[in-house]
Amino acid sequence: MNCPRNSRRLLCRLLGREPLAAVGARPPQLPTSRYYSHVSSHSQRPEVFRSTTPGSFIRHVSKPAIRRLPGPWPPRQYCTSPTSTATPLVFRWYHIPWKVTAAVSVISVAALIAFCHRCLEVVPCTNRAHFVFLSPRTERELGESEFAEYKEEVASQILSELHPDSVRVRLIADKIIRAAQRGLGVGSRDAVILRVTGSRKNGKPWRPQPHTSHLHGLNWEVIVVEDEPDTAALSKRGGKIVVFTGFLKDFSTDGEIAYAIAHEVGHIIARHHYDITRSKWMPIPLWVYFHRKTEKEADHIGMLLLAAAGFNPHIALAFWEKQARMAGVQTFQQYHLSAHPPYQQRFLFLSQPKNMEMALELYREVTSMDIVTERYFR
């Protein structure tokens, strides 16, 4: 038994190999990584593999040793698949604060320009710029519906169209309305009021032209309501005017009635009902201030319409003088907190040389045209 074993050992020595004595299990192989390099080492003992087929030859296989590179090095990675690389952070324009500020500023200025172009209007006769949010078409629709409701409420107090007071008031109102349409160029080529007031030659170039489109095709309507305590006249949206019988008793002349109607027509021409400065959301002091300002503007436009209709503009001064005399001494609340300015201030405002000269020039031009028309064309 020992002879074959010795022969086998001798044969292995002659071949330069060692016998397969006690070969253990194959050690696990480490995965290849970029952090390791394979170097051959002759000092490492070779591993011996034995074939599973009986009687086959035995061969020795020497594997390269694994030596770690000098550090520092990251942790070992045993994943053979390539690792995903993160997308680098790209800075956009909205990541830079000054660019964001510039963009917001440009957008705000563009929105403001569009808003001004859409809502900014210039009042005829006074050339005052103001903001109006409502379109003329919507204004007419609201005016018609509101006035229809108002007539239903006071249906029993409205005087008949054949009543002498109604006929008289309508004739005077027609004269004022025709003068306004002719003077503002509504259905006429010669806009005498705009020419005299300088709305076409002295206006600032960046401002739009005086707004008169809301007067085209406007359905004017004037009614007389029987109300003795109320001594005033009022205007409503969409060209509607209401005159109370109490006013006709205190102001009986045609000139006084004409100026009262012209004042209300002035509110409609200037679109004061939809002016942003007369909104209820404004603080009370500012609301009173702007409301008084629009009332004075209507006084000025009314005096110009009075002159354009052929009435002497001094009638407007006499009107407010009479109002102040009838009102007597006003209280502190009436003088300072009322939405309407005191009668003395309105009288002084209209009697200013600039306002009166403009009205007198318009009055002379209109009356001279009437004289020429009456003399040569009748």
Textual characterization of the structure:
With about 375 residues, the protein is mostly helical. About 50% of the residues lie in helices and about 10% in strands. It has a three-stranded mixed sheet with strand order 7-9-8. The longest helix is centred in the last third of the chain and has 25 residues, at about 285-310. The chain is elongated and about 155 Å long. The N and C termini lie far apart (about 165 Å).
Distance between the termini: 163 Å
Major beta sheet summary: 3 strands, mixed
Helix-strand topology string: HEEEEHEEHHHEEEHHHHHHH
Q: How many DSSP helices?
A: 12
Q: Uncertain runs with pLDDT below 50, 5 residues or more?
A: 20-25, 32-51
- Our Rg estimate from Cα atoms comes to 50 Å
**Content of β-strand:** 5-15%
Relative helix content: 40-55%
Strand order of the largest sheet: 7-9-8
SS-derived structural category: mainly alpha
Number of strands: 9
Residue-averaged pLDDT: 80
User: What is the overall shape?
Assistant: elongated
Please specify the SSE layout and strand pairing.
Elements: H1 2-14, E1 36-39, E2 47-49, E3 59-61, E4 65-68, H2 97-119, E5 120-122, E6 129-131, H3 136-153, H4 164-183, H5 192-197, E7 221-225, E8 233-236, E9 240-244, H6 245-250, H7 254-270, H8 284-308, H9 314-327, H10 332-337, H11 343-350, H12 353-376
Parallel strand pairs: 7-9
Antiparallel strand pairs: 1-4, 2-3, 5-6, 8-9
